[in-house]
Amino acid sequence: MVKTLPYLLLILAIGLLSYLYISSDESHTPSDIGEIPSVEIETITGQKLNLSDLKGKIVLINFWATWCPPCREEMPYFEEIYRRYREKGFTIIAVSVDANENFVKDFVKDYDISFPVSMDKEGLSDMFGVSSLPMSFLYDESGKLIKRKIGAYFSLEEDLKELLSLH
Questions:
Q1: Who contacts 119 (Cβ-Cβ below 8 Å, separation ≥6)?
Q2: What is the reported pLDDT for 60?
Q3: pTM of the model
Q4: Three-class SS of residue 44?
Q5: pLDDT for position 5
Q6: 83 contact partners, CB below 8 Å, separation of at least 6
Q7: How many Å apart are CA 43 and CA 49, to the nearest integer?
Q8: What is the pLDDT of residue 122?
Q9: d(CA 70, CA 64)
Q10: Average pLDDT of each block of 10 consecutive residues along the chain (167 residues)?
Q11: Strands (E), the chain
């Protein structure tokens, strides 16, 4: 029994990881975030904006942290996609769960991030049920949730092209 315990734990770990991987790309989430919420946030530059005022645009809300390797990896990709599609009605709101705002400001400067970035002061990560990082929520122009993505979201451009082709 003692010799088989590590193997059982390994099998359980593989099963759990497989489940998380398979279930990480969901198109339905709890109804309380099925629409972009009416919540005012403040960006790290001091700009105040209400998320519901973004209706009329395709919106990606991304939860991330400077210490999260997949988050750091996807940010340059997000910047590229943002610059490519912002004139077509797309925006990104990045919500950092970092405790230190200076780390976030340094990261934004170092990575030349031009989309709005805020700190999670309003408890958005709890409201959205963020369970791991990065985690993204894609909303269509009517404010309806189209996709929830757990993990790095490198298929964003494909999803945007699909949404933009509907117009």
A1: 44, 95, 96, 98, 101, 104
A2: 98
A3: 0.80
A4: coil
A5: 54
A6: 114
A7: 8
A8: 83
A9: 9
A10: 54 43 40 82 95 95 97 97 96 97 97 97 91 96 95 96 79
A11: 25-26, 40-42, 48-50, 58-64, 90-96, 117-119, 135-139, 145-150
Residue type, 138: L
Q: Are 129 and 30 in contact, with CB atoms under 8 Å apart?
A: yes
Contact 137, 29 (CB under 8 A): yes
- Tell me how far apart the alpha carbons of residues 132 and 21 are, in angstroms, rounded to a whole number: 12
User: Using alpha carbons only, how large is the chain's radius of gyration in Å?
Assistant: 17
User: What is the Cα–Cα distance from 29 to 150, expressed in whole angstroms?
Assistant: 12
CATH topology of domain 26-165: Glutaredoxin (3.40.30)
Distance CA 97, CA 144 (A): 24
Residue 13: strand, helix, or coil: helix
DSSP string of 76-95? HHHHHHHHHHGGGTEEEEEE
Give CA–CA dist 69/95, Å, rounded. 16
Q: Which amino acid is at 63?
A: F
**DSSP code for 36:** -
Q: What is the token pair recorded at 11?
A: 């099998």
Q: How far apart are CA 6 and CA 12, in angstroms?
A: 10
Would you state the pLDDT for residue 16?
39
